[in-house]
Amino acid sequence: MIHFDVIADAITWSALVISLVAAAALSVLAYLRPRRAYIWFAAGALGVALLAAASAGEPAQFGLAPLITVLGLTVAVFGGSPAAATALDLAMGGTVAPGLHGGIIVAEKRSADEEHRGVQSTAKREVLRGGLTIGVLERLASAGAIIAGFPEALAIVVAVKGVGRFTELEAPEARERFIIGTFASLIWACAGALVVHLALR
Questions:
Q1: pTM for this predicted structure
Q2: How large a percentage of the chain has pLDDT more than 70?
Q3: Closest CA to 52 of 200, 198, 192
């Protein structure tokens, strides 16, 4: 019976480390060379890592803890951007024109006078600029909060992001993109951090 438990633990921790290494490598690859297949395979590997971490009988030994932490953070930070891009592509397709600075191009809001006269506005502007950099910082803060055992910090991260973007969310396409991208990015980051949290508990 003891031998079976030892073998089962060895299989669980091997599956966890191997799947987490695969998820981290595929997440970085998807971030650097965007391909939808990379993020789908990374999601599968992350799912296996989650199952292995949830079924682990004991916390990770000291030697494995730093490795699992680094791999989990790598998955959380780098995989979130391609995950958000995939979710946005599935939800919105190519209906929104990309901007030069990482945002999207939307029509300028018409003034009250223009609306009254029925004038169609042709002016365009870029909103949600710097989304890639903001996303990396958001996922790093979110994953770090979960790993540290302070999930309440997620509310702070979302509030700060929402306040910072508030003035840009008047266009419907900007609101949709903000909500879908934020949820996909945060769910991915939380899943990567949860693997670490479960493994180290």
A1: 0.81
A2: 74
A3: 198
